[in-house]
Amino acid sequence: MEAFSDGVFAVAVTLLVFDLKVPDHREGQLLSELARQWPAYAGFFASFLYTAVIWLNHHTAFTRIRHVDRGLHFANLTLLFTTALIPFPTAVLSHALIDGVNSADARTAVALYAGIAAAMCAAWLLLYTTVHRGRDRLVEADIDPGTFAADRWRSIIGIVGYLSAGVVGALVYPAIALAVFVCLPIFYAATSEGALHLFGNSRRGGSTQ
Amino acid sequence: MEAFSDGVFAVAVTLLVFDLKVPDHREGQLLSELARQWPAYAGFFASFLYTAVIWLNHHTAFTRIRHVDRGLHFANLTLLFTTALIPFPTAVLSHALIDGVNSADARTAVALYAGIAAAMCAAWLLLYTTVHRGRDRLVEADIDPGTFAADRWRSIIGIVGYLSAGVVGALVYPAIALAVFVCLPIFYAATSEGALHLFGNSRRGGSTQ
Amino acid sequence: MEAFSDGVFAVAVTLLVFDLKVPDHREGQLLSELARQWPAYAGFFASFLYTAVIWLNHHTAFTRIRHVDRGLHFANLTLLFTTALIPFPTAVLSHALIDGVNSADARTAVALYAGIAAAMCAAWLLLYTTVHRGRDRLVEADIDPGTFAADRWRSIIGIVGYLSAGVVGALVYPAIALAVFVCLPIFYAATSEGALHLFGNSRRGGSTQ
Amino acid sequence: MEAFSDGVFAVAVTLLVFDLKVPDHREGQLLSELARQWPAYAGFFASFLYTAVIWLNHHTAFTRIRHVDRGLHFANLTLLFTTALIPFPTAVLSHALIDGVNSADARTAVALYAGIAAAMCAAWLLLYTTVHRGRDRLVEADIDPGTFAADRWRSIIGIVGYLSAGVVGALVYPAIALAVFVCLPIFYAATSEGALHLFGNSRRGGSTQ
């Protein structure tokens, strides 16, 4: 199962480059046209970061799992569904920002991105809950039994964070949402070893290759 | 062989996002234009579900197979051929539905989708039959000898179901075919452990990672 | 190394679907426009078959190889280079055939396809020669020492066959070249166990998974 | 981690073919239009070579690494980020060269390519430094302790080489930069076994499969 999941992550992260297009330009105007599409570069960076961090969390989780049952297969496919979707709201957001950070279209795009990112956090919550409930069968013996219960809090923070960002971005000011879109992946990167490790428990720190 | 097959499934499932395009729109009209292309979202969802379920069935089958001979290689490549094709009828169907669920073009698109989906079921029938005939050499020792014979019935239900949906959709009412296109993948997901397991035989339930 | 190669084959074979586009059409004309682009379907089928057969030959060769040195890495990358290129001449050929099987553009397209397919056969010749020369270090102990020497003849048949098809197709009649483009992959599929096996030697028949 | 990295390399290298487009042409003009887009073929070749050589170096490095910690994960993701980006400056450069090797746009494109290639060399420097600092935990026991320290020099040559090429190409003559863009990947291919091997140390020559 990890081969298939790793394949989806690898393709999704590499396909993001298709949002970077050679701009139409009159002769000699290439530099200024390249500069004008800066939101596409920001979108590429943010979505690469987000997808790579998701892979890292996925990789960490599955070094702790020893068995995959039906329920976990479906939770994982739900997560891959939202991952495969990410390039779409990224492209919508990049296009909208080129026309202005505070336009009506930017508000629409920010709400779309927030909704799909929150759905991905919900998929993580489903996955962590599935593993936690079946931890006697599914989890490696040397893992702290509270590991996946604690990780559910990380998902809940994401759901609340993205939904709040979507509402504030759509109704008040889109740039606030953009700041959240950059900060939450950094939060997930910083906590990729799992929530338990934040509180000094590092019985099993690094992942082996 | 599983690495190559998993790669094809992972790429096929991730490429589906290319059918989701940023819609052309006048300033301020992004929201309504995004809403107007709902058939593309339905198509993405249905084809992701279908391809993911095919992968799950493929994964289950190959945990029970211990040897791959020439005949099984060709049956598997036939299956991958139809899988790699899926994004095309999905795109045709999405485009046709935007212009109306009951148009002449929707009837054409429904028939194309049904034909290719039936061809995939025929590829499964070939694969299950190939494994069943060579079960002494090809199948793991602890697997019930009737496993792959029983699974052939699942393929036959798909061939008959998709062809019927295609005929009814093209000649009577396309929406009936769309309902079948959603239900059959759910049937394959529900029976992904194999037909034998439906009748209480679960000697080997979950798949190991 | 096989993971990377399998990845390239899997992506190349799945990307071919991008040559199948939803045709521009007036309302109600979808069926006839779909029919008109039959050369694209033929191109998809031929290139899928060719790439899948290349993968099968690659897989068979590497079940017999136990060590990869610098020279073999470069021979393999040359083969992957020509494999990754295949979607381009396929698209050129499909487009040219839509405008007529005997046009000046069809002659150009046929010559391009033949040249790249011959280059791929030359990459196979390099790979088989590299393995044959270093067979004491590179090949599994239980493999007949003449295996890779015999396979070189299969590559030479391809080089001569594709170059002849290109010359005849460009100067005399393109359809003759198209027939060769379908027949040579079938030849490679039929001989994928290696040239030695054609003459009754099947000490090591099927490949294990 | 290697499965994910190999996947990104395999997808990146195969996606490059999308820069090769069937040219718009009037009937009978296919040959001359194909010839006119030679910079796209040169770009495909150079970027395929570069990405394949990066994969080869990555593969060599990770046969010597036995453990991956957080820091190495992030260094590796930085490298994958620059790898996934390569198709973009390649496309910009190909387009610019079609309009003339010495135009203002060619200078812009050459500077962009040089900047991203230098950033990739900086990612290699980060990776080699991370491994060298943690060599007691991260590196296989039978590897010379100076291996990764020596490899840092190969990265520094790349950073200086690409940045110089970018400055000279943007301010003096773009063709000089193009020559550097071809020569540096050849340098990395020739030294892919590691800098230490250049000085006669080949205690561990070929990589096993």
Automatic annotation (TrEMBL), chains A, B, C, D:
Chief subcellular location: membrane
InterPro entries: TMEM175-like
Pfam family, one: TMEM175
Subcellular location: Membrane
UniProt catalytic activity: K(+)(in) = K(+)(out)
Topology class, membrane: Multi-pass membrane protein
Transmembrane segments: 38-56, 77-98, 110-128, 162-188
UniProt keywords, alphabetically: Ion channel, Ion transport, Membrane, Potassium, Potassium channel, Potassium transport, Transmembrane, Transmembrane helix, Transport
Keyword Transport: yes
PANTHER family: ENDOSOMAL/LYSOSOMAL POTASSIUM CHANNEL TMEM175, ENDOSOMAL_LYSOSOMAL PROTON CHANNEL TMEM175
Similarity section: Belongs to the TMEM175 family.
Protein name per Swiss-Prot or TrEMBL: TMEM175 family protein
Species the sequence originates in: Rhodococcus olei
Lineage, broadest ranks: Bacteria, Bacillati, Actinomycetota, Actinomycetes, Mycobacteriales
